Amino acid sequence: ADAEAAADAVQRRIAGIFAAAAVPVADDPVHAATVAVERAEADRRRLRDRREQAGTLREQRAAHEREAQVARALAGHLRANNFERWLLAEALDLLVDGASGILRELSGGQYELVHDKGEFFVVDHHDAGLRRGVRTLSGGETFQASLALALALSEQLAGMSTTAASLESIVLDEGFGTLDAATLDTVAATLENLAARGDRMVGVVTHVSALAERIPVRFEVRKDARSARVERTGR
Question: Which Pfam families match (predicted)?
């Protein structure tokens, strides 16, 4: 009697488990359980496959959204006014970036050039990275920044040439007569640094003796009552 009661209890527990799992109770519970497990495994595999497919679809959607964003941006840029504005902004960024590297080299690492909303600024690394407007620069600093911009522009123009042209020389014509001694010294040091780069010949036309004496190779124009002659001085 006890064995029968125990067996009935086990059968009731099995029936309860089957009912909870929504598995029909059959005459052979072992076979029914095996079938239920196989179905559950198949359902699990389907869910796993669908989850992987969902992940792939999410990645594809994100890629399409990025492409759509680029397409919208291009559509905006390619409108007549926007395209011109975008092109000029890109050209200005490249110009200032190139000029900044040259200015840093010419100033011995002291200055960098940046711009913001059409305004130019110099970053002074000898003054804790202070950012100064170009209107506050001294004469020598203005010369350095202007020369850096001119050199960067010449390099960009050479890069856009279809004949792979290179600008191998630069000539500065006067503009030094009104500079004070300190500014003139800065200009001379800048020109010496420029020549030390070795990528181009630097020529200077000047009547300022203090500047001319800093240039190693000079051609002096001498005049008399009847003619003028050119003499090479220096090494």
Answer: SbcC_Walker_B (PF13558)
